[in-house]
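**Backbone geometry record:**
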Amino acid sequence: MDLLVTYDVETTTKAGQARLRRVAKICEAYGHRVQQSVFEVVCQEADKLRLVAALHQVIDSTLDSIRIYHLPARSLDDVEHLGIARPIDPRGPMVI
């Protein structure tokens, strides 16, 4: 499945800044960062469930917001870029 994961984590406190770093690390383990708080993820259902569970454990649900968009199959193979973009193969290896 193709997913687009976006997040907005409150960072006015040290705890919020730590949550932001942890959310980013979790997302980096599952997908490719395409913008500051946006990740493209190609995964199986089991991986998606693990991703969601890990994110639930980290965020403060009263302050932070994560949106996971379920895209049609292979949508990430045909993305239009404007401006600076790193060429990313969404199904390629997760090498940073």
